[in-house]
Design brief:
With 289 residues, the protein is of the alpha/beta class. It has helices at residues 35-45, 60-65, 70-76, 86-94, 108-114, 116-119, 140-151, 226-233, 244-253, 272-285, and strands at 4-8, 29-30, 33-34, 50-55, 96-101, 124-127, 131-134, 154-161, 170-176, 183-191, 214-223, 257-261, 265-268. 30% of the residues lie in helices and 25% in strands. Strands 8-11-9-10-12 form a five-stranded mixed beta barrel. The structure holds uridine 5'-triphosphate (UTP).
Amino acid sequence: MIKKCLFPAAGYGTRFLPATKAVPKEMLPILTKPLLQYGVEEALSANINNMAIVTGRGKRSIEDHFDNSLELESQLSGTSKEYYLDEIKEVIERATFTYVRQHKMLGLGHAILTGEPLIGNEPFAVILADDFFDCSGDGVISQLVKIYEKYQCSVIAIEEIDSTQVERYGIVTGDLIDGSDDTYSVTSMLEKPKLHDLIKPEEYELSSDDMPRFMAIAGRYILTPDIFSILKKINPGKHGEIQITDALKIQARAGKVIAFKYKGNRFDCGSIEGYVKATISLAKKRNII
Ligand code: UTP
């Protein structure tokens, strides 16, 4: 059973400066709710109640958000505005929160390793809250938990992208598992590769329609705890960062990584375009615009 979810949330969010100078990127709202709260609700809907959050300097508002605010509650108590706090109060009641600080921004792999004391020796989920998903059925973490229960190894959420986007993602190659059209046994991975790392020279001439498509890692994972000892041995890769894809590559060589094409719509809320699209999409869905 997966009982804990790790939220790496220590990044600087430079693409959203100056908004993220004093407000963590993970606390930017889509409509009225911070990105991180959507992530916590997704974990809760997968019956995961322990939230382990990797924070950094200037991120104290995250802890305040997931705590009672007695002054505000007593101010609103008995008024017509009381219900505004219902959703967050329910989250606070159902979940427990633990925190650890990442002192140096050495990449996602390093952020996950920083969370080890909060996770211990058990499989765990990882949510990158700036990847926002709109799913009509189960949330993405619930979908991954089902795959984990079947294969008992690390599971990563993937989506198909075209050749123009490969430099922005971790790219996965793998073999479809017999009888499935959405579940792959991962054979290799590359972090933000150039297109020429992925295609043969003769394929360069292909029109964009004929170019092969690629499988990109989205911000949801289930990881087995051996990932921590692997991360400890990994040398920093691109930009001096410790990449989670390098650790997963080692698990994949032992046939221990499954990639699953999640069902749902993803918005990259780490980018301004994705953030605006997510806001518009949700506002339309709720008949606000
Ligand atoms: P990003 O690279 O998208 O976040 O990392 P960022 O660095 O904050 O964004 P920009 O490029 O400066 O705008 C994905 C997730 O991993 C976390 C981030 O907080 C984000 O949720 N992260 C990344 C860490 O916790 N620590 C790191 O060292 C790097």
